[in-house]
Amino acid sequence: MYKCKLCLKESDSKVCKSCLEKIDNDLVIYKTTNFISFAPLYSPVYYAVLAYKNLKLVEVGKVFANNIKKVNLPDKLIITYIPCSYKRYRKNKVDHMALIGKLLEDKDREVIKLIDRVDKLSQKDLKKDKRKLNRFKLNNINIDDRDILLIDDIITTASSINECYNLLKENYNNKIIRLALIY
Ligand SMILES: [Zn+2]
Asked: What separation in Å is there between the alpha carbon of 17 and the centre of ligand 1?
């Protein structure tokens, strides 16, 4: 028996069924031409996403992946993601957004890691004025003309997703759709 990591009630998995149902019910697809999101900052779902990334709650990732599948997206897609920090990767042994990407894969939708981190040091180790510079780099992979879905977890200042979007835009002519779980 576990205790649900979200509501602390007894559960047969890390997150109980009623919490997963609640997250699923709370998600609302917000979609413009090139941007998709599911819930606002500081909503209950926001805290569920924080728990997902900090505690590797795969079940929560699956709820999001299932909702992303309901969005009207191009059939043929390259899915790419904003890589998590090295620190988080070392802790979790998995990149939580790569995991969601993998859950979206099918014969026409492929995950390709187009972007990498350059900051092997933690952000705190870098001087404040350098934080913005070159946090990401392209992996220089040749791709075809499929649309690119760029996925991220939480947009607060939007600096990460903008930096990655601009990197992609400068180097590929493909249409790029941005997706954030929380906005
Ligand atoms: Zn629960």
From this structure: 7
